[in-house]
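Exercise 7 asks you to align residues with C-alpha cells for two separate proteins.
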Amino acid sequence: HQSLPLDHLGEALGLSKFHLLRTFQKETGLSPRQWAMQLRTRRAKGLLRNGMAAGEVAHQLGFVDQSHLNRHFRAAYGITPGRYQSVAKR
C-alpha cells in the first residue's frame, strides 16, 4: 500500500510520467491512483470476508482511518464494509 512516485516508475520504464499516465489510462481505463484504490478495496473485501474488523482492515491497507475505507468501499460496492461483512458471513 505504499505509493510509488510516477517519476520513479516512469524512469524505470523509460517513459516520462505524462506518457506513463496516458498509456496506463489507455490500457486500464483508470488512472494509476484509481487502479490502486480499486486494488485496495478488493483486498479489503477479502479481509472482511475472513473476519477482520473494518478498523483493522483500514489500518492494514493504509487507509487514513475507517471512514476513509467506508467512503471508498461504499463508492466501489454500494455497501459499507460492516454491512458487507455481515452479509458475507451468512
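Second protein for Exercise 7:
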Amino acid sequence: MPEGDILRRTARTLDAAFAGERLVRAELRWPSAATVDLVGRTVVGVEAYGKHLFLRVDDGRTLHTHLRMEGSWRLARTGTASAHGQGDFVRAVLATSTWTAVGNRLGMLEVMPTVQEIDVTGRLGPDVLADDFPGAGLARALNRFRERGATPVGETLLDQSVVAGIGTIYMAESLFARRIWPWTPTGDVTDPASLLMTARTLMQRSVESDTPSATGEQRRGTTTWVHGRVGQPCRRCGTPITVGQVRPPPMERPAFYCPTCQRG
C-alpha cells in the first residue's frame, strides 16, 4: 500500500503540474462522481494528508482520493499515448492543455466541498510528514500512542488515528532502526517520541530521494533494511530477516524484522 512518502511525492508532482491551471478534461469513472463536471475549473492546489490526496479547485470543491493497496496517479504530456487514459482500471483522468494525470486502480474517489475536508482529516492522527509534526503534531500523536497500552507497537504504528501516513514499510523500518520488536506492548516502548521521529526522518528521506527509498540508497535490494527481505541477511548483523503478522484477521499486515537486532 502506498504510504505517506508516496502521497507526498504524488502531491508535489501534481501540484507542480496543475496548480493555477484550468482543467480541459475531467473524467471521474466512479459511480458516485460520474456526473460531476470539473471542466473549466482552475486547480488551486494539491496536498496530501497521511495517505489521502486532496486536489482543490476554485469553486470550493475538492477531489479526494485514496490509493488503497494498488492505486497511483501518473502524469503524462497531454496528447501523448500515455495520456489517453484507456484501461479497465483507470478511475480518473484530469488534464490541462499541457499535462494529463491518470488515476489508476484508485481505492476511493469523491468530490466534496473543500470546507468538509476536516470530516476526513479530523478522524486521523497528525500527519507524520506535516511541517508542525515535530511540535504540536508529535504531542498529539504521543497522547494517542500512550493510550494504546498493551497493543503491539507494530499495530499502533499502523493505526491512522494515532499518526497518519505510516504503513507496513515504515512501521518495519522505524522499529528496526530503534531495535524494537514489533510485538512489544506499546506502553513498554521507552522512547516513543524518538520512534515516531525516526519514522518521519526515514519518510522525509524517501520524499527527497530521486526514487522512493527508506535507506537513501537507490540500487535494487538496498532501499529497505528489513521490509520485503525475508530470508536475506540482516544488513546490520547478518541474521536472516523473518516476518510475522500484526493486527488481527482480516486486517493483518506483514511485519518484517531481525530476530537478533529486535529481540522479543
